[in-house]
Amino acid sequence: MIQAQTNQTNTNLSLKKLKGIKPVGVKVKPEDKGKASQLISMFDLMLEKYEFRLVEDYHNKDFEVKKNIYDELKNDFFQDFDFSDSVLQEFILRVDSENLSRRGERILGSYSGCLLEFLTEKNKLTGKRTRVYINGIGKKFNYLFWRAKHIDELIVDNFEGRDICARIAEYDGSANAVIVCNSIGGNILDYVGHGRAKVGLVASINNIVKGSDCGGVGSDGSQTGLIALINNKGNATSETAGAGTSNLGSILCLNSSYSEKDHPIAQNAGISISRYQSAFILFTYLNSRGYPLGSNGYSLPKVRPTLLSYPKLRGFQAQNNKDDKDTYKKIINLGNSMKSKTGLEIKEILKELLKIYNPLFQKSALTFKNSCYEKVGDSYLFEKKKDCQVIPSPEQVNDVINHYNKMQELFTEPNQ
Asked: Within a 10 A sphere around the Cβ of 359, how many other Cβ atoms?
């Protein structure tokens, strides 16, 4: 790993001076020669300029600094810089991410998020999708892609660190799919899509979690299609996912065990549901033996799957038959087949899993409507049933269904 060193004290150095920097003794692809080194040198300038403007664990200041970095890069450095996903990958693998202060780690995380965000914006102008896959080969990288606001599809494979891909699409952001797999760390994917965001798929697969896993995803007025938690081990998961007035389509928790006995997540079969206020949730919890588990918090120990909405509506259940049970077995087998696979292989398996899971979701949506509303005439109008208390409108439910369907469509779309 190489990180350019600088003793510059003048933080107003023009960004354009970096255009002539060349790599030293680094083997890279011919088309990327020099570009990763320029990005590393630019990071050194951003680190010098912004590191001591941060306040420890003060998120508002982090958000402000990240925005300033993005504006500087976009308005100056990237004006003449030919940027691609291969250059981004080269930068991530080469930059020294381990010999930094805590503040420095957050600057680097924000910087990497800015790079991904800019690449997505650049490709969108030409109608091109931005599907990024990076295998870190075990590299430690705290705050990797932190706070990237608008992205398309990202697969992060085999990294170690805290807050990997955390807070992506936060505050009015967007992301079609964010997947972290084969990694070790705390707070993986935390608060993705927090705060009025639109996010499709958020998946944590084959990870060893030292803290929350997908905590806060889709919370505070956001819309999320599916949270998938597959083959994970650790302390906790999703303790506040979908909280607030958010619309969360579904959670699939498969072959994942969380050992913190006193945590509400471990007490509720892998997930905390007491704080959910989503339009509705299809919550499917399956283990490797093939026994779907419900939530003892809702006194439904054998429900398969469990269909939940607001806490006051406890107990809605999707109907089950032999076909559903066969579907569970297929889902379990596909989940098991993801073990020891690379991120790209996992994506292909996940595509197949979504095709099988989709009918369960659609049926649960219909079950929810039939449980809460009476249809009026031939038009698609509903009246709330008398025994239902606080529930979302049919329009809100339809929005969640449409968002989930769009997530699946984008994720399974062939590469261009």
From this structure: 12
Tell me, yes or no, whether 143 and 115 share the same domain.
no
Instruction: Give bridge partners of residue 376 from the DSSP assignment.
Output: 381
Contact 110, 65 (CB under 8 A): yes
Residue 81's pLDDT band, with cuts at 50, 70 and 90, is: confident
- 329 burial class (0-12, 13-18, 19+ CB within 10 angstroms)? exposed
Residues 211 and 353 grouped into a single domain: yes
CA angle centred on 235, ends 230 and 239, rounded to 5°: 75
Q: ω into residue 305 within 30 of 0, thus cis?
A: yes
pTM: 0.82
Number of structural domains in the chain:
2
Question: Which uninterrupted H or E stretch holds 176?
Answer: strand 174-181
Q: What is the pLDDT of residues 103-152, one digit of tens each?
A: 999 999 999 999 999 999 999 999 999 999 999 999 999 999 999 999 99
Give the burial class of 198: count Cβ atoms within 10 A of its Cβ; 0-12 exposed, 13-18 middle, 19 or more buried. Answer: buried
Half-sphere exposure for 219 (CA within 13 Å, toward CB): 18
In 3D space, the residue among 18, 36, 14 whose CA is nearest the CA of residue 27 turns out to be 36
Last-in-domain residue among 101, 128, 155: 128
For residue 171, the number of C-alpha atoms closer than 13 Å in the C-beta half-sphere is 8
Q: For 53-68, what is each residue's pLDDT tens digit?
A: 776 555 667 888 899 9
